[in-house]
């Protein structure tokens, strides 16, 4: 059915709002674990390891990343077979339930070794959900968008991540302000996890009202769906998957300095800054990340996805060592300044991502391709970035070794961007579903 441009815009506004809110809830749940890994879990669940407790606590943040590709493959298969909308509802439920259960896990002092085991198992469930969530939310937004505004509209599910970070840090800052240090460690930290009950309800109401992607519906009507999308993807598009993963890894490793809780932990435990103050500083930086992500998506519509990525990587590289120098002063004002400018490069290497990944792959394997590139990039980049940062700082005695590590990762992303084609504005419909690398069309390439 033909729609006017106005009706498309109106429908798409509802879709991107739903994608953004759902992604915000999903990542709020994911980030509160990472924050607690630095502030709570080391002492409550891994204290028996002594000095290694904090490193292992951060490692549990990374363990879940190894299950993201599994979640990406499963969600990608379902998303390319039954649709984006249904999978997004499933991933939201999985994330919400596992988050609430984390808030109920007794400490090691109460149930012994079962406590960290349960914690890790529930974190793995979060990883499965996160692996499948992003691809669906990104594609739902981009596949509804006008061709010349995919970068901007695709940036809306992207800003769910900084909003989730903002809310996660805000929740803990509020709890920390209303409790004593002893109360916070005893039970206060559980409140944001248990709040997931309400968030699940809100997210489900929103996502059940979202209409399916018109691009996917066209593929369904044309009976052009792949029987085993991931096999077709890896047979014809594995180079794109790998290159896309390396590009995202450079963003993800740097981003996990705050989203993974490393900066918060370092500022509180090594620089002895007030916990609430540090969380508030990260909240300010989340706003800057949100704004730069939207700007990055908008600019990618005008100047190209890869060009904006390269600008972002250049900013990341230039700011890396000044960032840690300012953080290391222990001055709150300089910490805020460091984090805000740090977020500019992050936004420019994050805002164009949804549109870039959507335009890389044919519709029949698009969910699988986008989700797997994203999940593998997260494994290579952010999975153990906080753990590596903590280990480097401990072994070298200086936070600048962390800056060197992140600078090297950024260079890898910059180089990898040369191997990712910029297909800004290409048709996303089924008629254009020819493989973008040598090989037969996906409709006839199924095993």
Automatic annotation (TrEMBL):
Cellular component, GO, one term: plasma membrane
Subcellular location: Cell membrane
Transmembrane segments: 53-75, 87-105, 117-142, 163-181, 187-206, 240-258, 278-299, 308-326, 332-350, 371-389, 401-420
UniProt keyword Transmembrane, yes or no: yes
Record key words, sorted: Cell membrane, Membrane, Transmembrane, Transmembrane helix, Transport
Basic and acidic residues bias: start-end ranges: 424-437
Renumbered residue ranges of the record's region Disordered: 424-447
Gene Ontology molecular functions: transmembrane transporter activity
PROSITE patterns documented for this protein: MFS, SUGAR_TRANSPORT_2
InterPro entries xrefs: MFS (IPR011701), MFS_dom (IPR020846), MFS_trans_sf (IPR036259), Sugar_transporter_CS (IPR005829)
Pfam families: MFS_1 (PF07690)
Ranges where the Major facilitator superfamily (MFS) profile domain occurs: 15-425
SUPFAM superfamilies: MFS general substrate transporter
Topology relative to the membrane: Multi-pass membrane protein
PANTHER family noted in UniProt: SHIKIMATE TRANSPORTER (PTHR43045:SF1)
Protein name: Putative MFS family arabinose efflux permease
The organism of origin for this protein: Saccharothrix australiensis
Lineage: Bacteria, Bacillati, Actinomycetota, Actinomycetes, Pseudonocardiales
